[in-house]
Design a protein that fits this description.
The chain is α+β, with helices and mostly antiparallel strands. Helices cover 36% and strands 38% of the residues. It has 3 helices and 4 strands, in the order βαββααβ. It is globular and about 35 Å long.
């Protein structure tokens, strides 16, 4: 099942994002369930959150992945949504 993870960073958390970026990217590579991902941007192009598309067995697996993401463990996000998603184009 595909799940969209939409997370918004805490205000002023850019350094937390930068400090944990390598670990986050390694986690993506290690877990091999991410099909697409990238930062959400503000009007000036600054990183303010994340959009990650997960291909997992169920919503519980998506919740587990999200909880163990180094970004989440570092306290980067003010909120995280996990929404089942259906790919139609692309």
């Amino acid at each position: 099942m595909l799940v969209a993870l939409i997370a918004r960073d805490n205000d002023g958390a850019l350094q937390t994002r930068l400090d944990n970026r390598a670990a986050h990217l390694a986690y993506i590579e290690e877990t091999r369930v991410v099909t697409q991902a990238g930062p959400l941007l503000d009007d000036a192009g600054g990183m303010i959150g994340s959009l990650v598309i997960l291909d997992v067995n169920d919503l519980a697996a998506a919740q587990d992945w999200a909880a163990n993401d180094p970004y989440a463990k570092a306290g980067l996000f003010q909120d995280v949504e996990l929404i089942p998603w259906k790919k139609v184009v692309g």
